[in-house]
Design a protein that fits this description.
With about 750 residues, this protein is mainly beta. β22 and β23 form a beta hairpin. This is Cadherin domain-containing protein.
């Protein structure tokens, strides 16, 4: 086979090759079966059209792109190019003949170009379809020319040899089995042309069959279902998943675009962004585990073939909880204040805890500070009771700041706290305490009566009325003398006074007890022993006698010279003056004797008496009596005087008429009196002491002792009313204390 035959055989592939020879400055144009000649002038303008190859070669312009038409210039520069839309060959760079052929004559200067087009074989071509192959050329003639063709072994292709009108032999490639480009995209065949000479000669050509793709494969995802986990609060733009769908086709048939299906909710589409070109799903909105935990979506992958094929997958996005919510405390109830003697296991507070997170992030633990007399007790799910676990003592800790701290088990853990103040109320659980349990007070003999001996102060750690203390001298007799006659103590501040002048030779010491009592309910008290060294001469000197210096009606009152008791000798009558004036002198037994006087003014008032029970030593026991207006009935004159008196008393009792009463002023102390009853027993002490006056009233039911401070110039009203009546006139007795700091001879 000659060289021409060999050149043509190179064109017998699955694509056609056209060799274009451009003869510069040549105007001749001819076309052969596979070679086309053009002649153009040199230095044509760029963009100038040389020829339309599609028209000259009989090609369909619409198939140029599909057949991948391309130009191969056998030169060191690209002088020409093809427009695949129109099939035109045009100048892209100035052509210089002298540069191309510097030593050749004008007639022999060539620019060789080769146009290559694929001769497509579609994978969906039907069985039996024919594909034309270029025939072999043999310069010999007759029986020595091309006689037949042979094809290498192939399952998909065969050939059929045919004879043309001019007697030439050519072969058609025939498809005998369905093609699948995805399985085998290229078939390499050998076509052999054999002549009829003897010996026979042959030539071969490679037939390369490129199977063109048809859109017969849909996009396929790696998985049909994807489960993806993503943390809540992931930043906007965070990658969730990169979907990868594959299409076995090629070109536009394998170019995939991604989109949501109609089954994907709007909320999901608002939360996640799907890149249609790459299939990447990224975070578009805020993710909050507590609001939305699972997102379901369906994504469709579609190719861009003429008849688009699609594939789909389901994606389930699980939002994982992040420990982004602090646990919360809610105080459902809190009891404050409480008494310090509250019982153990008493519930003080009820607390609930919660956490919006899940898993360990939502498991919470509640704590209170250690070393507190309380404990937490879980009552139900996430509910706790704060109960008293140890005895409380307000005097040690008056209030507790209880901090409830709740902590979750996330990593890192989050916590919250709330502090409540528990106030303790005082109960009277502490007795008054003296700094010392035994006191020794030294006093010089011949002391002045009323002198301050010492100030005894006790302490009670309780509060309010539980710490308000009252001081008492425990009553006791020494040498037939009551302690209250020797000493006096201020119940409010514990100042201890001497009421007598003491003589060391008579009594060297006094031993007695002081009681400090609080005002709680019930009251608590404690004792302190006192030892006082004294001069016993004071006992003799302190003996006081009393007598009237002046009295308005001597038949109405009597005075005991030793104890100072003033008694009524008879009942008050309407005939008695409304104002009574008594002057009493008190003298001691000293040498020289010292004395003091007191003036007692009494006024009769028609008012009811209300006794007050808030007295210091003993409760007041009394009956309500009333004074009467006595109406005397004159009887027979012959009745003896004794009978007359009896009748008069009987008439008075039966005829007494109660008068409206008025409450006694609350600032006065009233004492009940009847005939021969005690009006008052006044102990007189020096004016510079803390004054006390003792009123003793004896009734048929008992005695009343009233102890009350009497500053200089103070007054007290003592009312005397007869027993057995509801209403009566009241006699008020006003005591005026004279200055006893001045001593006078009797």
């Amino acid at each position: 086979m000659n060289s021409h035959t060999r050149r043509l055989s190179r064109t017998m592939e699955s694509y056609e090759r056209y060799v274009i020879l451009a003869i510069i400055f040549s105007f001749a144009r001819y076309t052969s079966a596979s070679v086309t000649h053009y002649s153009i002038p040199e230095e044509m303008k760029e963009g100038s059209v040389v020829a339309n190859l599609a028209t000259d070669l009989g090609l369909d312009v619409k198939t140029l792109n599909q057949r991948k038409m391309r130009l191969d210039i056998i030169a060191n520069k690209k002088y020409l190019d093809l427009n695949k839309e129109t099939g035109e060959l045009y100048v892209v760079e100035k052509i210089d003949r002298e540069h191309i052929c510097p030593t050749k004559s004008l007639a022999s200067c060539y620019l060789k170009l080769e146009v290559i087009l694929d001769n497509p074989v579609m994978e969906n071509s039907p069985i039996g379809k024919r594909f034309s192959l270029s025939n072999a050329v043999d310069p010999d003639v007759g029986s020595n020319s091309v006689k037949t063709y042979h094809l290498s072994e192939s399952e998909q292709f065969t050939i059929e040899v045919q004879t043309g009108r001019d007697g030439s032999k050519f072969a058609d490639l025939i498809l005998k089995q369905t093609l699948d480009r995805e399985k085998q995209a290229v078939h390499n065949l050998i076509l052999t042309a054999v002549d009829g000479g003897t010996p026979a000669r042959s030539g071969t050509a490679s037939v390369i069959v490129h199977v063109l793709d048809t859109n017969d494969n849909p996009p396929i995802f790696d998985q049909s279902i994807y489960n993806v986990k993503i943390m809540e609060n992931s930043p906007i733009g965070s990658l969730v998943i990169d979907l990868n769908a594959t299409d076995l086709d090629e070109g536009l048939n394998s170019d995939i675009s991604y989109s949501y299906s109609l089954y994907t909710s709007e909320k999901t589409q608002e939360t996640f962004n799907l890149n249609p070109a790459t299939g990447e799903i990224t975070v578009k909105g805020m993710l909050n585990y507590e609001h939305f935990r699972i997102y379901d979506m369906e994504v469709i992958a579609a190719d861009k073939g003429a008849t688009s094929l699609t594939g789909q997958c389901t994606i389930k996005i699980l939002v994982e909880d992040m420990n982004d919510n602090h646990p919360e405390i809610s105080i459902k109830s809190f009891q404050s204040p409480v008494t310090e003697n509250i019982e153990l296991d008493t519930v003080i507070a009820v607390v609930s805890v919660s956490d919006k997170d899940s898993g360990d992030n939502g498991i919470v633990d509640l704590h209170i500070p250690d070393n507190m007399p309380f404990k937490l007790r879980e009552s139900s799910d996430n509910y706790y009771e704060l109960v008293v676990s140890e005895p409380l003592d307000r005097e040690k800790v008056p209030e507790y700041d209880i901090t409830f701290t709740v902590t979750d088990r996330g990593s890192p853990p989050l916590s919250d706290n709330e502090t409540m103040t528990l106030e303790l109320l005082d109960v009277n659980d502490n007795v008054p305490q003296f700094p010392q349990s035994f006191y020794t007070i030294r006093v010089m003999e011949n002391n002045a009566p009323g002198a301050l001996l010492s100030s005894l102060t006790a302490f009670d750690p309780d509060l309010h009325e539980n710490q308000y203390l009252v001081y008492f001298i425990i009553e006791k007799e020494i040498a037939n003398t009551s302690m209250s006659m020797l000493f006096s103590i201020n119940p409010e501040n514990g100042n201890l006074y001497a009421l007598k002048t003491f003589d060391y030779e008579i009594e060297k010491e006094f031993l007695f007890h002081i009681e400090a009592r609080d005002s709680g309910s019930p009251p608590l008290s404690s004792l302190v022993a006192k030892v006082i060294a004294l001069d016993t001469d004071s006992v003799h000197n302190s003996r006081i006698t009393y007598q009237f210096l002046q009295v308005t009606d001597a038949t109405l009152f009597s005075l005991d010279q030793y104890n100072g008791e003033i008694r009524t000798m008879r009942m008050f009558s309407y005939r008695d003056p409304r104002h009574q004036r008594l002057v009493v002198v008190a003298k001691d037994n000293g040498e020289p004797a010292l004395s003091a006087t007191v003036t007692i003014s009494l006024t009769t008032m028609e008012t009811a008496v209300k006794a007050y029970s808030d007295m210091t030593e003993e409760p007041l026991e009394y009956d309500i009596f009333s004074d009467i207006n006595l109406y005397l009935v004159i009887g027979l004159g012959s009745v003896s005087f004794l009978l007359l008196i009896t009748i008069l008393v009987t008439i008075v009792i039966k005829c007494q008429k109660p008068k409206p009463s008025k409450a006694a002023p609350p600032s006065r102390n009233s004492v009940i009196s009847e005939r021969n009853s005690t009006i008052a027993d006044s102990t007189l002490v020096s004016n510079d002491a803390y004054w006390y006056s003792l009123f003793l009233a004896e009734t048929r039911k008992g005695k009343l002792v009233v102890r009350q401070p009497l500053p200089k110039g103070s007054r007290y009203i003592v009312s005397s009313i007869p027993r057995g009546t509801g209403l009566t006139d009241t006699i008020s007795k006003i005591f005026r204390h004279t200055d006893m700091s001045k001593r006078t001879a009797p």
